[in-house]
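ok so i was messing around last nite and threw this chain in just to see what happens. nothing serious, just curious
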Amino acid sequence: MLSYEELLAAVTATSGDSREVRDPATDAVIGQAPVSDVAALEVAIDRAEASQRAWAALGHEARSEYLNRAADAIEEHAEPLAELLSREQGKPLNGPNARFEVGGAVAWTRAAADTPLPVEVVVDDESGYAELHYRPIGVVGAISPWNWPMMISIWQIAPSLRMGNTVVIKPAETTTLSVLALVHVMNTVLPEGVLNIVPGPGRTVGDALTRSPKIGKIMFTGSTPVGKRIIEASAPNVTRLTLELGGNDAGIVLPDVDPKAIAEDLFWGAFINTGQTCAALKRLYVHDAVYDAVVEELAAVAAAVPMGVGLDEQNVLGPLQNRAQFDIVDRLVESAKASGARVVLGGNPDREAVGNFYPATLIADIDAHQELVLEEQFGPALPIIRYSDVDEAVALANELEVGLGSSVWSSDRAKALEVAARLEAGTTWINSHGGLHPMIPFGGAKQSGYGREFGVLGLQAVAEPHVISG
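result:
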């Protein structure tokens, strides 16, 4: 097993163009991330294209064996990977953070390897016979984000490889080393040319990846505006797309809840990864009958959760990954305060301190159409909106153009299911928010994207359906 120092040395740039990488918690320099150009991208695409047929010819069983070996390698290097992730992304080692993310990368790799996808007989009667097969698309271009850089990269890489595609991945510019390290570890067991990584700017390398006629499929997790640009750039080649785009997830708390019983799950639904999660709870609608109690219990939980440098074992909330995101959260909270909303907790960052730390913030008595409610904050600030009629809450939850996740909180499952059926989102959770499972399909509705990841649907999404009839 490589140590942290050896793993970092394996991915740190020693020549060519590079970018200084700093820990968002301490501002300490971690290393130098390589910065590639479009020429390097084209070499990687050609390498992936040249390797694809042989990889596909191995068949499902052999490819699954390789993926399980890759999962073994990630697991073997779990601690140095988690340390690098914590230093670069900022998330703490403990809690649902760095070690959790590396463990998720292992679990999703194994799930992609082991999920059966047999040939489906769709017709077998007097009218005829037809089978549905799933063939490789070719080369998959993956573009991963900075909030869960390792795990979301695996969501793109593992199913693509399992289905016989090769991959060219472009990591986010601010979490390059983490994904380079993940790919380095996987490539100790994968055949050469099957998994390729090209770090570089989105405006050049990312754009060229989406425009390449040699790319058969693009998988992207990120903002809706960038997703729209990918649609436009890839359209001339009719490139297949899976887009998991921005969300502004709503949660609706019904009047029959026990506020104390749900407070901790509400907190982690909103504040997992310090709020930097696409499917985190980002606006909470609470019935007037329990509003004050829910706010009080949620504040009690939030006040007790330690935030700080990720390598300190006691911390479970960390800094925002980059200063630009800090500034977005700060602007939105200040806007809410200026509107007359009540700050229950937080809202008072030390803007001069080292590190991108924004305190866990709860904003109550806020107008349903205030900026903090309508705009995705992607950070540790939760607006809590009072309502008196559930139809009103459903209408408010549904009125935005995004619909990634949502949740309903109630002690009556039947009532919760009734409300859940009315919400416009890719996933609606009952009495929890944001939990994912490698066998449960995940993706967005409306402008939160299209296509599904995970499980059988996720494998089918990175393959070409082929009907053989007769």
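not much to say yet. The first strand starts at residue 18 and ends at 22.
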